[in-house]
Amino acid sequence: MANPHNDLFDYTAGRWVFNDALRHAERRLVFDVEGLRRLAAQSVGRSPDDVVNLSKLAEGGFNRIFLITLRDDFQMRSSHYGLPPFLWAARSPGIRILACIGQRSWNRVYLHGEVISVLRQLTQLESKMMSLSFPAGGSLYYAHDLEKVAGRAAIQLKDERFCLGPDARLPIWYGRRSQLDVDRGPYENAEAALVAAARKELAYLKQFGQPLLPFRRERRDCYQYQEQWPSAHIENLERYLLMSSSLVPRDPALGHFCIRHPDLQQGNIVVRRSSDSGWQVNHDDPVSQSMTPPSLPENIDDLDETERTAAEEVYLRRLVHYHYVTNTKEYNKLHYDAMTDPMCVLRSRLYYHAGNPREGETLELKVALIRATERWGTLTGGSAPCPVVFDAEDVRETMELNEVQTKADKAFEVWQNMLGLGPEGWMPTQDYEEAVALCKQMKEEALAEAKSADERAEIMAHWPWDDMDEGKYM
Fold it and tell me: Whole-model pTM?
């Protein structure tokens, strides 16, 4: 018998054209609905009997926002994810949650002002959040919760209700990585954090590593459909560790630990419906002049509906980026300095690819390592020689493979866009059946056009929108 609360427990905004059941199982979260009703009523001095409705207002991939309605039409919101109580305890104000940005139909003048108003508030909020100092890096816990877990190191904060404990990010614990006895923090300094991510992955590969095809099936042709041995990734992780102590920014202010939203994007910004109508932009100040504001195409009114929508989406993304950067420069100078450091992207790329779970490839990490050797002086700000040296022929072969893979990625992105698919084959629930049918049709056409039995076998075994076994990659 179906649970009457499944709509609350499950992710319902989208589906995936492959491994749909697995993605939904990952996101399903069962909780005590009646307990939530009771606590919500108690928080405003009411009886649980006064709660007449509890519904899902919005959701992300792994979080929900619920709307709770009482008898007199009083409404409140509760979420699985949001500004943690720590920020309230630290007196860091938040933006009140009422509706999602992007739900409003297009009105260019109004939207422009709304974006400016929201991003000004957002960067001011982010500045206050990032001004909070932490003695180490890791994840934030209630102290009484971490006390229940044996062997978990913790660093007490000034407010004794909270503490810093092990890093809880998914790449640290993904699959069999949860079985490893490795350092997950708290990290005493930035170098410790940079090192721990790679050492975790090294430990995993030495215990569980095996030859794997690239997880991303559109890339397998680049490797002639051959499994890749973990030894190559182990070698690149060891190269990264030789570099890691030199990757910490020389300015100590850029190496301190702070709190920030881990996935700051438009879909995760929720604001009031009523915007500040008194917005103005001063284009004479140095901040505004430091970047060129985006604009819509001059012929926007002559475009058909599809072209117009695409142009407006590009404009909105650029508008958000422009005002986020300019407001960050004005309200959060330290963060602005960090993200505009010429080597920020390369440092981030090295750390990301060294700590991310291996998906049958090592190319992206190796390319980043090669780039680091080429820009070592600028990257480290010193004159010491780079501890890693690549053979010229190895560099040439790596960059040739990278070019082939980049072309494959771009071609696949075109197909994804044509099908209306997002990452991992995601799409809105209402479009799911049509997308599955299109993927099936494309596969049938590809099989019909195949010139040999081997080519047909490759299509059958590696079609990027079929279900697949992910167990070996965990």
Answer: 0.84
